[in-house]
## 1
Amino acid sequence: MTGASRGIGRAVALALAARGARVIVNFAHNEAAAEKTVAAIAKTGGEAVAMRFDVADGAAVDAAVKDVVSSAGGIHILVNNAGVAVNTLTLGAKDADFRRAVDVNLGGTFNCTRAALRSLIRAPGGGRIVNITSVLGEGGSAGQAPYVAAKAGIIGLTKSWAREYASRGLTVNAVSPGVIDTDMTAAEMPAMRREEVLKTIPLGRIGTPEDVAHVVAFLAGPTASYITGQVVRVNGGLLM
């Protein structure tokens, strides 16, 4: 589970642990937050361990996956959630803005999947990959082109991998959250803007990390074995 130290990632980690998964809580910088996720899982009787690595670093990902396979015996579920928001108009964008958005959001998803594939296709009952994209990757957003491009790319990877590995029993799906109440959203959305956004959501509320987590956990479970190559929207009707 990449990017599992807080927000959607933490909620997904808790949901998977509640269903019996042993969770690897990946983080890049915030060790304290990752340990809080581990502690929250342990408090409910689950099992988890924190692991630091940057998903944008292919060599670091390969080493981490080898460690997990060696210590846990294999990887059955991969949730690619790690990401960074990059807000910039294209005309004023720096090369580094685009590269970071693509390297972490899209490249990280590719790196982790490539490293884990051999283990996933050997998973009993079929492995599961769930990639976290975004409503912005489907509908676009002014001032966030690098982020949007990366999230749209994740949808392409999802559909390609679903076709490549269906014969091995591996399902690959994406979950596309809308506006979700996380630290990142709170930091980037002042109260006035929040009220404006609420008016565009048919269900009339901001989503919670748990709203997303329940869908991810379903797709990662045995009852979703006939679902692959899909993008499941969790957005309150914001995009239909």
## 2
Amino acid sequence: MKLGRIETAHGDMLVARAGERVIDLRKAVEMFLQATGAVDARSQAASYVPADMNAFLARGGADDDVVRHALDETGASHSTAIEAVSLLAPLDAPGKILGVGRNYGEHAAEGGLARQGCPRLFLKATSSVVGPGAAIIRPTGVTKLDWEHELAVVIGRPMKAVPQAEALDHVAGYTILNDVSAREFQFDVSPPQTSFAKSMDSFTPIGPWLVTRDEIPDPGALKLRCWVNDQLMQEGSVADMIFPVPYLLSYISQYMTLDPGDVIATGTPAGVGHFRDPPRYLTPGDQLRMEITKLGVLENSVV
């Protein structure tokens, strides 16, 4: 299932993609409950499908049998063409966003850096999240603006000290994330300010869809490609990760509870701008296109 959020005149709405259309999740559940004879189907539907994606995931999300039955049986009658809606980030305010640095072997090598013995983690501010089609804003004074194309893991069930073998059972799904970075704050100052360099306004484009884990049985098989102005800049495989997804989730959960709606940005393949010769930084007018197998395409421009 591909889940998302759209903007409407009556507020944000959770939707599911069906071909080239999107289905109003709450309305589909309401009509399904009405058909089964439920009393006050509207208020029950609001409980099954809260307006907030984090709350929806905590409530059971796409794993809820009522939601899945509703989409199968009544969804088609409450759909809209994708081109007629405005897509938002599938999660507007994750509880926390954790990034993993230097997690691809080829990316570590392009920077002349050794493979790490344990994950290198940092935080990204949730206020930096924007959706597909939104502008990436280059702050005044930032000249080393860079891209990092990443697979993002979205948590669906609380995780604390979870073994690797059970880690994927706690995943709601996957999406695309651009870990935009102001490299002068990451590399040119002492001490480095990694979280700040990656948390400025608009520095975390996410989307377009949250693809549920049943559609991605093996995240290690996913391929990533990134274009800047139609030039292919990054092409890699999740299989090149130094620390695979189950290891990362298990490792983090030993020290920090992960909650529904939390996001783990799992690292980027080789091909970022900073380590090119000469370096290639983003400037206003640049167009970015990021693609991951089965997850869709995330596009944003720089202003």
